Amino acid sequence: MLLPLLAILLPLTAQAASQSTPKKMVVHYRSTTGKKIKANRTFTTTGSRVLAYGSTFGPQGTGTFGKSKAGYVVKIKGYVPFKIRKTYRYQKLPASITVKYIKESTLNKKVATSYIKQFNAYRKQQGLNALKHRKSLLKKVNVRAHELWIRDDHIRPNGQSYNAKLSGYGETMAELPAYYLPAGYTMEGLGATLVYNHKGNITYKGTAKTAVDELMTCDKLHRDTELNTWAHYSEVGFSFAADGSGMMAQLFQY
C-alpha cells in the first residue's frame, strides 16, 4: 500500500523543489531621457511575487510609498514615476526591468504647456480672446507655484498678493493631491490630479485637463477669473513632488 502513496508524493515534492529555486530580478532606474538616477536593486524570490509598491493586499498596495523596501518602485527626489508598474509572479519573473521616472521640472513644463492650450481653447469657445504669453509673467508664476508649498494661500510668504486691488494682476490656484499614497496609488479622483493613460504612462494633456476643469467648474469666482475680459496676458506654473502631488498657480495681467 505504500508504493502508490510514494508515487503520488514524488511529483509534488519535485514541484515544491522547483518553486523554491531562487530567481533574481535586477531593477534599473532611469529617467525618460535615459539617465541613470539610482543604483540598481536586485530582488530575489523563491516563490513569492515581487511587488511594485510593497503591498500584499490588493492591486493598489498598502506600503508607504518610498519607505517600504518590499516594492521595487521607489521614491526618488526630484522625479515622479512615469509609468504604473505591475506585480510580477514567480513563474514569469523577468531577469531585469527598467523603471522610468520623469524629472519634476520637465513634468511641470509639459503640463503647463498643455494647460495653457486647453485654457485658451475654452476661452475661444466662450467667445473670448485667447490670452497672450509674457516671459516676465511666466517667471513670476513659476515662483508662485513653488511658494505654495510654503504657504498655500493667495497671500504670499512675503505678505503680498497678486489679488490685491488695483495691482493689475489676478490669480487662481489649485492643489493636486498625492497620487502615491500609504495605500499604494490612487486610480482616480475629483478635481485637479496627476493622470496616467490606458498604457500606464503619465498624460500631460489629461493631467492639465483636470486642472482646467476644476477651475472652470469649482465655483463662480474662479470661473469668472478664468474667463475675465480685462487681462491681456496669462501664464500658469506647476510644481510637482515625488509622490505625484502638485501645486498650480495661474496669473493674469492687464
Structure explained in plain terms:
InterPro entries: CAP_dom, CAP_sf. Residues 118-246 form the SCP domain. This is SCP domain-containing protein. By secondary structure, the chain is α+β, with helices and mostly antiparallel strands. It has two domains: 24-103, no CATH class; 104-253, 3-Layer(aba) Sandwich (Pathogenesis-related Protein p14a). 29% of the residues lie in helices and 23% in strands. The protein has a four-stranded mixed β-sheet. Helix 2 (104-125) packs across helix 4 (204-217). The radius of gyration is 24 Å and the shape is elongated. The model is unreliable at 1-18 and 56-64 (pLDDT under 50).
In short:
This protein is an alpha+beta fold and 254 residues long. Helix content is 29%, strand content 23%. Keywords: Signal.
Largest sheet: 4 strands, mixed
The strand line-up of the biggest sheet is 2-1-4-3
Order of helices and strands: HEEEEHHEEEHHEE
Distance between the terminal alpha carbons, to the nearest Å? 95 Å
Structure class: alpha+beta
User: What is the CATH H-level superfamily of the largest domain?
Assistant: CAP
List the helices and strands and how they pair.
Elements: H1 2-19, E1 23-31, E2 36-45, E3 79-81, E4 96-103, H2 104-125, H3 135-147, E5 169-176, E6 180-181, E7 184-185, H4 204-217, H5 220-226, E8 233-240, E9 246-253
Parallel strand pairs: 1-4
Antiparallel strand pairs: 1-2, 3-4, 5-9, 6-7, 8-9
Helix pairs in contact: 2-4
Domain SCP: 118-246
Protein name: SCP domain-containing protein
Keywords: Signal
What are its keywords?
single chain; about 250 residues; alpha+beta; Pathogenesis-related Protein p14a; 2 domains; 4-stranded mixed β-sheet; 3-stranded antiparallel β-sheet; 5 helices; disordered N terminus; CAP_dom; SCP domain-containing protein
